């Protein structure tokens, strides 16, 4: 895909972090305008797309998958702790969804390369089943496979992505709106210019820190000040 966009990976992360914050403010702070969550529908697909770019460029895919899984387990532990403290379930954990999706790509690529194919098939089946229980269900793995394998054919990628969201959202969500707005994520995805952007230690760890920190903070504020 020609790199004609205007945003680097880091630029996209910052933009999506801002939209994600708006989305979560809507869910945890009563009275927030509804359009905050409309914009938030773009976030998960874009972070999924960026994960697939990392899977392409990383020198060690297995290590990258483990890093996502470790982040997911840390967030799971924090979620369980807060759920116990406030007697209210906190289940948001996109790290696990991304880890499962990255794991699928990892084992599919190992299968394609001829490495222990029976083990790869078992891993793919287990990860596919596990995705049903992750945030976003099967939508995130489907997005990941489309973005990873069709990136070099952007027209086909965009069409298949749009059709997949149009087919899956009505099935997985009782009320398709605003989830169907995920289709619009193709706009920021096409703004990607193929560059990493900032590569400082802060830039590499920013999302790993920001995501759980702001979710935990907003959840605690909701329970302390707005819970019935």
Describe the structure.
The protein is mainly α. The chain has one domain (9-221). Helix content is 71%, strand content 0%. It has helices at residues 9-28, 35-40, 43-57, 61-86, 94-112, 117-131, 139-150, 154-172, 186-190, 201-226. α3 (43-57) packs parallel to α5 (94-112) and α5 (94-112) packs across α7 (139-150). The radius of gyration is 18 Å and the shape is globular. The termini are far apart.
Features:
228 residues; mainly alpha; 10 helices; globular
Short description, anyone?
This protein is mainly alpha-helical. It has helices spanning about 10-30, 35-40, 45-55, 60-85, 95-110, 115-130, 140-150, 155-170, 185-190, 200-225.
- Gyration radius, to the nearest Å? 18 Å
Care to count the β-strands? 0
Overall helicity: over 70%
Q: Uncertain segments of ≥5 residues (pLDDT<50)?
A: none
How many structural domains can be distinguished in the coordinates?
A: 1
Number of helices: 10
Strand content: under 5%
What order do the helices and strands follow? Answer: HHHHHHHHHH
Biggest sheet character = none
Structural class call reads: mainly alpha
Q: What is the overall silhouette?
A: globular
From the N-terminal CA to the C-terminal CA, the straight-line distance is 50 Å
Q: On the 0-100 scale, what is the average pLDDT?
A: 94
């Amino acid at each position: 895909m020609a790199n004609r966009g205007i945003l680097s990976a880091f630029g996209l992360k910052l933009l999506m972090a801002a939209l994600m914050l708006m989305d979560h403010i809507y869910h945890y702070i009563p009275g927030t305008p509804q359009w905050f969550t409309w914009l938030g529908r773009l976030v998960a697909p874009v972070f999924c797309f960026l994960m697939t770019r990392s899977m392409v460029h990383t020198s060690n895919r297995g290590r990258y998958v483990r890093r996502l899984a470790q982040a997911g387990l840390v967030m799971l532990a924090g979620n369980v702790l807060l759920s116990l403290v406030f007697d209210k379930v906190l289940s948001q954990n996109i790290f696990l969804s991304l880890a499962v999706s990255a794991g699928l790509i990892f084992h599919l690529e190992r299968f394609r390369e001829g490495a222990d194919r029976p083990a790869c098939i078992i891993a793919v089946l287990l990860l596919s089943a596990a995705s049903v229980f992750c945030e976003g269900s099967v939508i995130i793995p489907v997005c990941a496979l489309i973005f990873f394998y069709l990136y070099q054919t952007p027209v086909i990628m965009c069409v298949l992505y749009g059709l997949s969201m149009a087919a899956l959202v009505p099935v997985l969500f009782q009320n398709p709106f605003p989830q169907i707005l995920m289709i619009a994520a193709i706009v920021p995805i096409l703004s990607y210019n193929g560059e990493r952007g900032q590569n400082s230690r802060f830039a590499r760890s920013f999302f790993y820190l920001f995501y759980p920190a702001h979710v935990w903070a907003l959840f605690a504020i909701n329970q302390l000040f707005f819970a019935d």
